[in-house]
Amino acid sequence: MALNARINEGKSSSMILSKTIMGFWAAAMMTMMSVNASAAQGTSPAQVAVTPPSFLQLEITSACTDKGAVFKIINRGVKWPRTGYLRLYRADSKSLLGERRLRLAPGQKVSFVVKNKVMKGHPVAVWVEPEWYKREMEYDASIKCN
User: Fold this and answer.
1) For burial by CB atoms within 10 Å, which of 51, 83, 97, 124 has the most?
2) Is the Cα dihedral 31, 106, 16, 102 positive or negative?
3) Does 21 score more than 90 pLDDT?
4) For residue range 89-113, what is the model confidence (pLDDT) as tens digits?
């Protein structure tokens, strides 16, 4: 996992947090394994192609604006094989603020604003949970806007 954070020296001192989630992703690779078909019948072993699971490859950016926190998520990997959940938390209390079910194509972008009246001075965080493999619960991006 790579985490890049920098302070934007533009008009405001908003923080841009970019986190790339890299997995062991191999869409084009296939693993060949031998399976003993039926030794009692005298047949030869069969070849079975097994495709490894597609792991998340996301670019997540967060920034503070005058309206609240803005999160932008880009799928840098392959098309998701199933849906996943984008979950928004109040980071300090780990309470769930909302969730959205989605399925992203390669290069697809999702963005949303968490309004100041929802944040109420608390930091907010995003976690993406895929349905096709188990992933430890750890915030993918978080931000606190004053």
Assistant:
1) 124
2) negative
3) no
4) 999 999 999 999 999 999 999 999 9
Q: Domain map of the chain by residue range?
A: 2-25+54-143
101 beta partners: 85
Q: How far apart are CA 88 and CA 60, in angstroms?
A: 13
Q: Which two tokens stand for residue 108?
A: 């697809």
Non-local CB neighbours of 24 within 8 Å, separated by 6+ positions: 52, 55
The secondary structure of residue 50, as a DSSP letter, is E
Query: Is the pTM higher than 0.90?
Result: no
